[in-house]
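Work Package 4 report. The design task specified in the project plan requires that, given a folded chain encoded as structure tokens, an amino acid be chosen for each position. We show below one input record used in the internal validation round.
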């Protein structure tokens, strides 16, 4: 059991390090809300992070904001629930129409690691702490 948990911690840590490196290169990250931004900051992911669902933004507002930043690549990190998946797919389609390449690799890999244990990005920091505590007790 603890070996599985340890592997999960390692995989999650490595993925978050890659995300932090990507963000440090200037890649824009789009999350759902301000709590998601705070969670990524707690996990040492700095850089350009915008929240899609604050201040009554629409999907098109988010696409416009990404376009205004002048970036051609963007990491989408919406929540892992049904609505987050829907937003991810819709945002992906709209971004592709304006010639912005949406990166879903981190989202897919995170979903693969956390499964149903975490429903949103804001829960990642607490989840990581819980995993570390469990592995240190073993």
């Amino acid at each position: 059991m603890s070996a599985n948990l340890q592997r999960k911690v390692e995989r999650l840590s490595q993925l978050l390090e890659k995300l932090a490196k990507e963000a440090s290169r200037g890649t824009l990250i789009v999350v759902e809300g301000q709590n998601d931004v705070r969670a990524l900051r707690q996990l040492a992911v700095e850089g350009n992070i915008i929240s899609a669902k604050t201040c009554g933004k629409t999907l098109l507002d988010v696409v416009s904001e990404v376009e205004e930043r002048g970036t051609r690549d963007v990491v989408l990190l919406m929540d892992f629930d049904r609505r987050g998946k829907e937003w991810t797919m819709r945002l992906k389609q709209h971004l592709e129409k304006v010639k912005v390449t949406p990166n879903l690799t981190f989202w897919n890999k995170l979903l693969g690691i956390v499964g149903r244990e975490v429903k949103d990005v804001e829960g990642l920091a607490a989840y990581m702490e819980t995993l570390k505590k469990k592995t240190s007790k073993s």
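The CA atoms of residues 32 and 52 lie 5 Å apart. Validation will be extended to a larger panel in the next phase.
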